[in-house]
Amino acid sequence: MRIMTVCLGNICRSPAAEAVLRRKLAEAGLDDVEVTSAGTADYHVGERPHELTRAVGTDLGYEFTTVGAQFRPEDLDEQDLILVMDESNLADVRALVADPEVDAKVRMFGEFASDVESAGVREVPDPWGNPRPVFEEMYRQIEDAADGVVAAVRDGRV
Question: What is annotated as the active site (predicted)?
Answer without folding.
Answer: 7 (nucleophile), 13 (nucleophile), 126 (proton donor)
